[in-house]
Automatic annotation (TrEMBL):
<dbReference type="Pfam" id="PF00069">
    <property type="entry name" value="Pkinase"/>
</dbReference>
<protein>
    <recommendedName>
        <fullName>Protein kinase domain-containing protein</fullName>
    </recommendedName>
</protein>
<keyword id="KW-0808">Transferase</keyword>
<dbReference type="InterPro" id="IPR008271">
    <property type="entry name" value="Ser/Thr_kinase_AS"/>
</dbReference>
<keyword id="KW-0547">Nucleotide-binding</keyword>
<dbReference type="InterPro" id="IPR011009">
    <property type="entry name" value="Kinase-like_dom_sf"/>
</dbReference>
<feature type="domain" description="Protein kinase">
    <location>
        <begin position="1"/>
        <end position="283"/>
    </location>
</feature>
<keyword id="KW-0067">ATP-binding</keyword>
<dbReference type="GO" id="GO:0005524">
    <property type="term" value="F:ATP binding"/>
</dbReference>
<dbReference type="GO" id="GO:0004674">
    <property type="term" value="F:protein serine/threonine kinase activity"/>
</dbReference>
<keyword id="KW-0723">Serine/threonine-protein kinase</keyword>
<dbReference type="InterPro" id="IPR050205">
    <property type="entry name" value="CDPK_Ser/Thr_kinases"/>
</dbReference>
<keyword id="KW-0418">Kinase</keyword>
<dbReference type="InterPro" id="IPR000719">
    <property type="entry name" value="Prot_kinase_dom"/>
</dbReference>
């Protein structure tokens, strides 16, 4: 693990001196994402530094202490955007939104792609959990995909076209690759204290929250596994997890069903660990290299 440094030691010059802010990519409750910056707080910097250099964790390239009083993080640019961006583009290209009619529930990603996503996020969570960190906000919006070929094509376009978002060659049906999928942390992750290895209070996104978090009970890294299960269920079915917590019958593959049951146990102690998710047979079926 790299030695952690204070913010002032790494932030040695103004943002504008080294980067041009092209456009705002999006915003959330914890900050704003721009084409070349992410504004957030010192706590997030410490959390991100702890897991840097690990596969499937969004790379942090640099940080800056700007005159506006904020810390600016320079992270990997992911050409495909978040999983939510990809899902919405897929829905649009398939014509599901035409006519204002409700679309029939169907998978948001092909099964091999879903397996690659689950393996990538689980791999990142192994690193988080080994450092005593709980991510607390695993969801579509916080998983990013970078396609090196598309990124190269995008870099050669003019900035006016770039403002409209990543350019995607929809004629090419390419599977997601595990090494191109990254879990991002936008300020919600927290550290388990050795003397009391549990967290308290609501954090994250309600649809993905584990029962113990929603109920206001103490929780730990097992809450991340529940969130990953909800994400996997959503990608496989196009539906949120039913209130009873059991997978929807649309999940017909036995291996996928078994993995979901292992992640979605209401008892945190009975849930799989991130390492066990990685070694599950359903993951091995689709992901050749973990």
């Amino acid at each position: 693990m790299k030695k952690q440094t204070r913010l002032g030691e790494a932030c040695c010059c103004a943002l504008e001196e080294r980067f041009e802010v092209i456009h705002v990519l999006g915003s959330g409750s914890q900050g704003r994402a721009s084409g070349s910056l992410q504004t957030c707080i010192r706590h997030e910097i410490d959390m991100m530094r702890a897991v840097q250099g690990s596969e499937n964790v969004l790379p942090l390239h640099s940080c800056f202490d700007n005159s506006d009083g904020f810390a600016h993080l320079i992270t990997q640019f992911c050409s495909e955007g978040s999983l939510l961006d990809i899902v919405l583009r897929n829905i649009h290209s398939q014509g599901q939104a035409k006519g204002g009619k409700a679309a029939t529930a169907k998978p948001l990603l092909p099964e091999p792609d879903t397996a690659a996503v689950v393996a990538s996020v689980a791999n990142a969570l192994v690193v988080y959990h080994s450092h005593g960190l709980v991510h607390r906000d695993v969801k579509l919006e916080n998983v990013f995909v970078h396609d090196k070929v598309i990124a190269s094509d995008t870099a050669r376009t003019c900035s006016s076209k770039r403002r409209n978002g990543p350019l995607v060659n929809s004629s090419k049906k390419k599977l997601l690759h595990k090494e191109d999928i990254f879990l991002a942390d936008f300020g919600v992750a927290d550290l388990l204290a050795p003397q009391e290895p549990v967290l308290k209070g609501h954090a994250g996104t309600p649809m993905y929250m584990a029962p113990e978090v929603l109920q206001g009970r103490p929780y730990d890294h097992h809450a991340d596994i529940w969130s990953l299960g909800v994400l996997m269920h959503l990608l496989l079915t196009g539906l949120p997890l039913p209130a009873h917590g059991k997978p929807h019958p649309l999940v017909q593959d036995y291996g996928a069903w078994d993995l979901l049951l292992g992640m979605l146990s209401c008892n945190p102690a009975d849930r799989l660990t991130a390492e066990q998710v990685l070694s599950h047979g359903w993951i091995a079926t689709w992901v050749s290299s973990l």
